[in-house]
Amino acid sequence: MSLVLQSAPQRSPHERSLLTILRDGGPTSRTGLSEITGLSPTTISKVVAGLVAEGLVTESVVGVKGVGRPAVTLTPVDSAVTVLGVQIGAGTVTVGIGDAGYAVRHTESFTFDVGAPADAVCDLAARALEKLVAAHDGAPVIGIGVGLPGPVDRDRRRLKISVRLGWRDVPIADELERRLGLPVVADHNVRTMALAEARHGHKDVGDVAYLYVRTGVGLGIAVRGQAFYGGSGGESYLGHTRVVEDGELCSCGSRGCLDTVVSEPAVREALGRLGDTGAAPGREEVLARLHDLARSGSRDAVAYEDTYVNVLAGALSGVVNLFTPDLVLLGGILATAPPQIVTSLRERTRDRIFPLLRDDLRVEQADPGDAALVRAATATALETLHFA
Ligand SMILES: [Zn+2]
Predict the structure, then answer these.
(1) Does the domain formed by 13-76 have CATH 3.10.180.10?
(2) Torsion angle in degrees (nearest 10) through CA of 144, 146, 152, 158
(3) In angstroms, what is the span from residue 121 Cα to ligand 1's centroid?
């Protein structure tokens, strides 16, 4: 890989802070920006002049107050920024192009063999991004956001581990920067999803818990529109909460973890046990298949579906009582679960949380599309490279 893409200039802290105010507060005058930031009018004018010259902000006259000068407000130009997104999952990579308004223009996804080395997957992702950028004649690229299926280091440059992919301590940001010459910000995939929903999909809310169930159970939290990081790299290990005493052995070495009951592999195994004879369902249909079996009169299927919803509601109620999000989004195999399962999960979660929280809590299915995945990855790059 030799093609190094040309990157946009790096934003100064003052520029980022003004761009963030304009994103969150809408069109604002220079005086308004000066009042909000505490920066002098001279400094604001200088910074704004730079942003206008780069096309990142436009001026518009919104009316004349009395005999004074016309009021001029500044509006961000979202399309003046190009940001790339990459989501690496268990055997799939989704790449795409977005802008500063969280719009996603092109996406492309491809599969790879689980067990392939990280290096080879970085090569594929870099090549796909180069192709997308070559075909895109938009604004300069500010950088790349990468969502990863495992915990990252505090600097958000390395994937610590992905048991499913067999990767350990992968310097993913260095690898992609070396290949593409653009700044890279990496983060845990479900945290990028929570952030993007708080910033874009549900920005009326701000406090979002994103529960993502696939090969395991991932949790991402956004508080007041900011991604929540805990200690030790900030990962949630909700999936490794014990829900069955002496249950199945989990990949973590413990027994009876939430993962062993509700993950996609656990549902597939249960379908086999329950005598499902149909062709293996796609990822989008595993829970629908379970629900069909339960509806067809299989008592064991009814019991498993009941346990499935109960243990998830139990785990989710802990998350809600702890973080009090306004919105819980259900992603992965839950994003396409049949409405009956979602309704039960919503009701049983409400049953288990503190009464004061019950009326306001929303539990909804997340957008399962590729654009949402790419948007999530771009959001983490925008947050670090463009906004404050
Ligand atoms: Zn476990």
Answers:
(1) no
(2) -60
(3) 26
Burial 168-203 (b: 16+ CB within 10 A, else e): eebbbbebbbebbebbbbbbbbbbbbbbbbbbbbbe
H-type alpha helices, 228-278: 259-262, 264-273
CA angle 165, 378, 335 (to 5 degrees): 65
215 C-alpha vs ligand 1 centroid, how far in Å?
Answer: 12
Distance 241 CA to ligand 1 centre (A): 7
What digits encode the pLDDT tens for the residues 45-87? 999 999 999 999 999 987 666 666 778 999 999 999 999 999 9
- Going from the Cα of 246 to the center of ligand 1, the distance in angstroms, rounded, reads 12
pLDDT digits (tens, 9 = 90+) for 157-200: 999 999 889 999 999 999 999 999 999 999 999 999 999 999 99
Instruction: Give the Å distance between the CA of 7 and the centre of ligand 1.
Output: 41
CB 190 within 8 A of CB 212: yes
Topology agreement, domain 80-197+371-385 and domain 204-366: yes
Alpha carbon of 257 to ligand 1 centroid (Å): 5
